[in-house]
Amino acid sequence: MKINQILNEIYPLPPETCAEICKYIKEVRFEKGHILLKADKVERHLYFIKKGMVRAFAPQGKGDITFWFGEEGETILSMKSYVENQKSYENIELLENCELYELKVEYLRELYKKDIHIANWGRKLAEKELLKIEERIISRELLSAKQRYDELLKNKPSLLQRVQLKFIASYLGITPVSLSRIRKEK
After folding, report:
1. Per residue in 108-164, pLDDT tens?
2. Which of 126, 131, 102 is nearest to 112 (CA)?
3. Are the CB atoms for 86 and 26 separated by under 8 Å?
4. pLDDT tens, residue by residue, 63-94
């Protein structure tokens, strides 16, 4: 995906404003397995996925808890670092070779002060991230494992072809064996 398209899906920007943000964005590439964001570190960048798939996870006891997947067009950021300038709690791992757009948070904060369109874009970015978190919490609390799986199939069907089943099971809050049972019922 092109960066203008990604930025405008978050919040439509005038062309000159979009061009201004793009002055501060650079393309980067990383290999599958790379840990892009590390827990217990203040993250100084945010990323937009041009090409590839990532997961957010936190180490927990016997294994990792996966709580988010990102694919083309999505934003990668630690909200705790972005909002509070504090250490993040999550790791972001690349599940495929990825092409990303990278933007330093400090540059973005300066742009917020200079252009109301960029400030509104940043507000909309934070609101969309908040809604993702809210939907995830509500899903985990109110839906059965089968319902969560059905929602995943409906909203992100490509995950099943691109993500290991153990990560999907972790995301759904179930064991790989339970996921196999749910999939056999389909």
Report:
1. 999 999 999 999 999 999 999 999 999 989 998 999 999 999 999 999 999 989 999
2. 126
3. no
4. 899 999 999 999 999 999 999 999 999 999 99
Instruction: Select from 52, 89, 83, 51 the least CA-distant residue to 67.
Output: 89
Ramachandran assignment for 131, one of left (phi > 0), alpha (psi -120 to 50 degrees), beta (any other): alpha
* pLDDT value at 186 more than 80: no
Q: Dihedrals φ, ψ of 51, to 5°?
A: -155, 130
Which of 46, 51, 26 lies closest to 112 in space, CA to CA?
A: 46
Contacts of 68 (CB under 8 A, 6+ apart): 55, 56, 132, 136, 171
- Tally of CB atoms within 10 A around 7: 23
- Residues 131 and 110: their CA atoms lie apart, in Å, by 25
Q: Which two tokens stand for residue 118?
A: 């960029």
